[in-house]
């Protein structure tokens, strides 16, 4: 399970929590402009926008979990097991495998609107990366510097592109149902609630934060969607990059998963393997891992973006503790 957001303070930030029970050896990967993306059913993309994100590199191919291009468009794939359905190759369509979808969009789109246009003839096809690496059932959040975002879902009824007014995505159910469910929590507030239960009779507000009493806190995707939407909608904007990055991670950490709380198989637990966020103007990727809470950064523009060679940085997993005495 996972959570992805676009946070519009400052330059704007895009990223996600990756929640799984096993790590894949993912790295921070910069794909420069002249790296050749060889698509299975489309012509090779020999020149494109540079991309930074978190990926598993296999056979010199970056399998991106999430990424942002140099124009400030971000995209993340999240688990969508059950509703996800990918199709056979269809003549006359732009046939793209889901493992190619992130570079297909980020390589050539400067905005969400351009991404929408790119997908008017799209067919997400059931082609595995290899016999060992099968397709994952995914749906995707796409956002840009304006704060606009969309959700892309391929189900048995076809390809669906939804405007996303809240800029949050988790997992099941299908996105329209997630939005509908928010109506059940529209009275949740950071403020003290008005007493409409017993008008004229004072009640004892035994605690601060009673306005958020009904906010769900489970590890399930519907609860995380509600809680992260509430958290993001009320998150403050900082006055500096450092403050905005700090606020961003606090916002995303509201729904991170700790080991031991989400059992997906006997004695096997899902947890937040990493959290990341990319500044949509500068292309700097910030990340933390479960083992290392320190915020680490990789700047896309410090790499040679006119190269054809991938640039990879291993994620730092050793906890950084600042001893003061």
Automatic annotation (TrEMBL):
Q: Please name the Gene3D superfamilies in this protein's record.
A: Penicillin V Acylase, Chain A
Please write the reaction equations for the catalytic activity of this protein.
cholate + taurine = taurocholate + H2O; taurodeoxycholate + H2O = deoxycholate + taurine
Keyword Lipid metabolism assigned to the entry: answer is yes
Report the pathway entry.
Answer: Lipid metabolism; bile acid biosynthesis
**Could you say which EC number(s) this protein's record lists?**
3.5.1.24
Fetch the InterPro entries from UniProt.
Answer: CBAH, CBAH/NAAA_C, Ntn_hydrolases_N, Peptidase_C59
Q: Which residues form the Choloylglycine hydrolase/NAAA C-terminal domain?
A: 2-313
- What keyword terms does UniProt attach to this protein? Hydrolase, Lipid metabolism
GO MF, any single term: choloylglycine hydrolase activity
- What family does the database annotate? Belongs to the peptidase C59 family.
Q: What is this protein called?
A: choloylglycine hydrolase
